[in-house]
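PROTEIN DESIGN WORKSHEET
SECTION A - STRUCTURE
LENGTH: 139
TOKENS:
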């Protein structure tokens, strides 16, 4: 009986922990937009908040939203950095956190994401094209 109570406690803790995550939509400043491999699916949405909500179950690391076309593009796998964007486009870093306050330094967090995605394990070599990035090792 005690084992069942502990299992129930852990299941509730896991469920509560997963449901209490906040998704912060953090704007990238200075007319910069994401540079990287974009998702194949482009969403037609009302705004950046709507875009993030549509990907709620599996959010990308970042999105770019065009206010004229209402197109929203996600960046799931590779973010190379930022580039100068059109005046109608803006990018946002999506951050999941169980902390109640939005993390303050978006550019610092973006840089961590870029570095994290470009590192390979020891003994592996990084290669990248416009549409693909990978690590490889010669045996």
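SECTION B - SEQUENCE
RESIDUE ASSIGNMENT:
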């Amino acid at each position: 009986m005690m084992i069942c109570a502990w299992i129930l406690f852990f299941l509730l803790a896991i469920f509560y922990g997963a449901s209490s995550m906040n998704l912060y939509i953090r704007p990238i400043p200075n007319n910069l937009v994401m540079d990287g491999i974009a998702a194949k699916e482009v969403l037609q949405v009302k705004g950046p908040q709507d875009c993030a909500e549509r990907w709620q179950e599996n959010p990308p690391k970042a999105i770019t939203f065009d206010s004229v076309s209402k197109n929203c593009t996600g960046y799931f796998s590779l973010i190379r950095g930022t580039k100068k964007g059109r005046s109608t486009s803006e990018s946002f870093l999506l951050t999941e956190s169980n902390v109640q306050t939005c993390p303050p330094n978006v550019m610092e967090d973006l840089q961590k994401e870029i570095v994290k995605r470009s590192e390979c394990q020891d003994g592996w070599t990084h290669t990248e094209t416009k549409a693909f990035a990978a690590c490889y090792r010669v045996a």
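SECTION C - NOTES
The radius of gyration is 18 Å.
Residues 1-18 have pLDDT under 50 and may be disordered.
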